[in-house]
Amino acid sequence: MKRTVFLIAALLTAALMLSSCERYEPVALSSTEELEAETHAATEPESTEAPEETEPVETEPPAPEDNRIRTAAKGIYLAYAPVNNESFMDEIIKVMDETELNAVVIDVKDDYGRITYDMQGVPLVDELGASSGAIEDLPGVISELRAHGIYCIARIVALKDPFIAEAKPEWALYKGDGSIFRDNAGDAWVNPYKTEYWDYLLDVSKAAGEIGFDEIQFDYIRFCTERGVNEVVYDEADTLGRDKISIITELVNYLSEGLKKEGLFVSCDVFGTIIGSSIDANSVGQSYTQMADALDYICPMIYPSHYSTGNFGLEHPDTQPYETILGALSLSERELSRSYIEGSNQAVVRPWLQAFTASYLGSGNYMVYDASAIRAQIQAVYDAGYDEWILWDAAVDYDYSAFLSEADAAAEQAAIAESRAIQEEQERFEAELEEETFPEELENALNGDQLYESDAAILSQDGPIVTYEDGGMETQAQESTAQP
Description:
- The protein is α/β, with parallel strands linked by helices.
- It has helices at residues 2-19, 31-43, 80-83, 86-98, 123-128, 138-147, 162-167, 195-210, 236-239, 244-260, 278-284, 288-294, 321-339, 371-383, 406-435, 440-446, 453-462, 476-482; strands spanning 74-78, 103-109, 151-157, 174-175, 215-219, 232-233, 265-271, 297-301, 348-349, 352-354, 389-392, 465-467, 473-475.
């Protein structure tokens, strides 16, 4: 009884102590206590000391909510000439209504630096006359596509911009002799270190978002690697000690942050060969993992025709589309999983696949990329653990028989999800087995150390383990019962 009273008293004391540390409302006073408190307050002289100033507490602003709705894109590239063809676009929309296709990539800023439609709201576009008007009514086209639930991606060619490099030569790349650098086609490129140009890219991209594009996809967001580029010189006042990867990563972060605020998704096309190759990454300035940290989507261009003999152990990669795509994306998964930090952002991988025949590779080195070749690549994407893809054919001549109906695609996705769930469960089971360790006391026992009493009892019942030269094992108890 006394112990119970003591415990209750102790608990009450602890509760009172805790109440003095927490932010609770004060307990109501009795009438006598109220009178004493009022009397004390009336007779207490007012303090003449200034109240002590407290330092404002800095708090991190809450992260803005991301209300963007993602789409698992399965798409095709559309050059601007066919986009002007009404009957062609009607056919594209019909195909997309009936098949798994649900996304298109359309040029907004092309390989020559020209804006493909009459863009409004970007002063420098008007000042320089950058619009070519190649697409007559792009806002109308986008409106129609979106009405059919089609995801619209604006392709923005970034640093390969001969138009701007000529119109604003202060932004161009220069060689040591003072002349503008030009690639094999005679096109000038923009200097990535000219951050004023970044704002131009951002303004053009925002304007594309205003006419209804869901996503901005940057192509050629890299350094040129063509002949003579080693003659290019960079001003230290521009570089500030930053190497190629640093400046490209900084540019990607700048554009990504600016466009996500506008409710747009952001992606970048990258060379497939930078995955797992520091040499290629440093050459073009593209770090696969660092760019993935900043983007919503990263789009490696892993066309089988772009790989040479020996890649992924293949003699002629273009003739083995499944194996090539699977090899490239297996590298992707390895690289991204190694760099991923729990809770951080990492881009969804959406590869570019090949829908053209690379006959220029010569006999025996290529194959016709028909529906079966396209399907083989898509299957490799799924088998590598990814779900999205875009097909490239500059001629926009796609074999629509390669695409599944919506019903068949849904069934395929359900089968893939089930297969992956089984695989994940198997991997989890195997990981748990690897984590199991032999009890320390039994390990010691097998080394001749003293047994715990419970283990000794078990062994006294079954007998010690006997190992034979042929690798077989049984307990001594089992051996004795086996004797005649």
